[in-house]
Amino acid sequence: MKLRVLGAYGGEGLGQRSAAFLLNDHTLLDGGTVSGALSVPEQLDIEHALVSHCHLDHVAGLGFLTETLACCGSERPVTIASLEPVVDAMKSAVFNNVLWPDFSTIPPAAPVVRYRTLTEEVEQRLGDLWVTPIAVSHTVPTAGFIVHDGDVGFVYSGDTGPTDTLWKAARGVKGLRAVIIECAFPNRLRTLADIAKHMTPELILRELDKLPPDVPVLIYHVKPQFFEETAAELHRIAGHRVSLLEQDKTYIF
Ligand SMILES: [Zn+2]
Ligand SMILES: [Zn+2]
Questions:
Q1: Ligand nearest to the CA of 182
Q2: What is the CB neighbour count within 10 angstroms for residue 232?
Q3: CATH number, domain containing residue 144
Q4: How far apart are CA 82 and CA 52, in angstroms?
Q5: What stretch of H or E contains 155?
Q6: Of 4, 45, 115, 168, which residue is least crowded by CB atoms under 10 Å?
Q7: Domain count within the chain
Q8: How far apart are CA 54 and CA 187, in angstroms?
Q9: Phi, psi at residue 89, to the nearest 5°?
Q10: Smallest Cα–Cα separation from 248: which of 12, 11, 15?
């Protein structure tokens, strides 16, 4: 399985893009940044967008992607997929004709957005992949995902504070190659992390005991404003098992 990091951060900074990953060229995993990291032909190849939750740093790029699809002769829509409350939020809070046009009706002859509600804690087909959405602990309804291609898979936390169900499910995954976990703030902002339901390096250290052993842990979603400080703390916590996901790198699992 191919995972290309379009954006590795929990916000925008100079050269730092919001969370988005492209799986096997056709499926987005979150869409904080899309058009800022992909050519138009690459955008037209996207068929599915798996969305963890509706916060801007995970969906802003979907707005500009849909504009590309509507303007540049896309032959097929992008299907936005997630748990029901997340899909509902995408309709009511994002593509609502206020924040952005409702591209599920544009262009009228062949709208470029479709929605698909996924069943919680059930493995289901999405394009050439299998996905299992699992609710995690954030300030709005949010899904983590187990993504599998039949041979190998990885776990993606979405935005979450400490959680359990996702890690329990991860322990049963065959061919697990990586656990991708968010970390937003440095340790000194623990109070803010608790309120906003995000991780700090110290919290991740505690989560490690719940994870399947010996699987590499890749960190994304550090807030650009605190990158140096948070990255230094992450480097200290857990030796070789934990590393930062690199933006613009393609990982082959
Ligand atoms: Zn986020
Ligand atoms: Zn969030």
A1: 1
A2: 11
A3: 3.60.15.10
A4: 7
A5: strand 153-156
A6: 168
A7: 1
A8: 26
A9: -70, -35
A10: 15
Structural domain span for residue 247: 2-252
**pLDDT > 90: what percent of the chain?**
95
Q: Is the pLDDT of residue 146 over 90?
A: yes
The CA 183 to ligand 1 mean position distance, Å, reads 9
Distance 39 CA to ligand 1 centre (A): 24
Residue 250 alpha carbon to ligand 2 centre in Å: 24
11 CA from centroid of ligand 2 (Å): 10
d(CA 29, CA 90): 15
pTM confidence score: 0.97
Residue 97 has pLDDT above 80, yes or no: yes
Q: What is the mean pLDDT of residues 82-107?
A: 98
Separation of 140 CA from ligand 2 center, angstroms? 7
If you measure from the C-alpha of residue 86 to the centroid of ligand 2, how many angstroms do you get, rounded to a whole number?
A: 12
Distance 110 CA to ligand 1 centre (A): 31
Spacing, Cα 41 to ligand 2 middle (Å): 29
- pLDDT tens for 168-180 read 999 999 999 999 9
Residue 230: phi and psi, rounded to 5, are: -70, -40
CA of 34 to the centre of ligand 1 (A): 15
